[in-house]
Amino acid sequence: MSTPIKSASSLLLNARLVSPKLLSPVENKICYTSTPKRVPRQSLNFSHDFQAHNPVKNPIQIKVTQENLAEDSLIIDSPHKSELLTYGLNKYDLLYILGKGSFGTVIKGNYHGKIVAVKLIKSKSGFVNESNALNLRHENIITVFDIIVSRKYSLVMMEYHEDSKNLQSVIDDASAVLDRKTVVRFSKDVASGLKHCHENGVLHLDIKPKNILLCDNKVCKICDFGNSVKASKATEMCTFQGTVPYTAPEILRGKLPSTKSDIYSLGILIWQMIYRKSPYEFSNSEVIIYKVVKFNFRPPLDSKDEVLARLCCLCWDESSNKRPSAAQICDLLNGVVFNEK
């Protein structure tokens, strides 16, 4: 989940000082009705996010009710669904919180007899981009089962994994193994998930370690489609934003995003797995935007791994047309794995 440090308008105003070609931010409008309904929406959140925030697993066990199939999960079906949509989490004192962020809180729940991860979001925060993932079914993408929208709160029912962790927490854990073979495997997982997204007309636009979930079977899955957009609607006037260090330069210049914008983010992510540190030493968002846009600045590379270093360079090429597709990256990484056998 993104954690905005500034409003989009403020950050893009500074970005426009770097490049006068940047478009003026245009806020999307959406009307919610009092009756819960499923509504698609295009909206993105710009943030600068370096710090690792591991998923919070904090069961608050104050009372146990017979309604729960598991003592640490909340049944989402009525009347709980209506109460959640109206009051949020205020009425509940037995919850298993999986994570928190600017977009909302993720809890462990039970929906139609199935244990799920439930993202509860204040509707005004503009989340419904998650609906872009509703039809995506792939082993490297967290499945979104259902989305329910109301005037105050909205619910996103997602695939749940008991012992999962985000990739950022793995990068930050000195005891976690991130050797070359593991980096290649994780990179291939993300590229494969992106390939499926792009083949189905979805741009994620916020690929970063915190939005990659490492599941108990050691498979990486792309999650959090709160910043996603349908490729067919990327021509509409709206503010395309993401997390600054991972955002492609064409977006920073105010141009429309494409599948290659996700590839740029993937290149930064691969670099971060190799070097296990923040991609930029300076943490100021405006400085990063200035250097990336004006000087084509990228994270430093050495000869640590020639093949992966070359892949990073291809992914974050200044020209989006020169960046490989997700399918091409999968083919390249399959070759690397084959050669290591």
TrEMBL record:
InterPro entries, alphabetized: Kinase-like_dom_sf, Prot_kinase_dom, Protein_kinase_ATP_BS, Ser/Thr_kinase_AS, Ser/Thr_Kinases-Pseudokinases
GO molecular function, one term: ATP binding
A biological-process GO annotation: negative regulation of metaphase/anaphase transition of meiotic cell cycle
Pfam families: Pkinase (PF00069)
Main enzyme class: transferase
Positions that bind ATP: K119
Ranges where the Protein kinase domain occurs: 92-337
GO cellular component, one term: cytoplasm
Family under the similarity heading: Belongs to the protein kinase superfamily.
Name recorded for this polypeptide: non-specific serine/threonine protein kinase
High-level lineage: Eukaryota, Metazoa, Ecdysozoa, Arthropoda, Hexapoda
Gene label: AUGUSTUS-3.0.2_32181
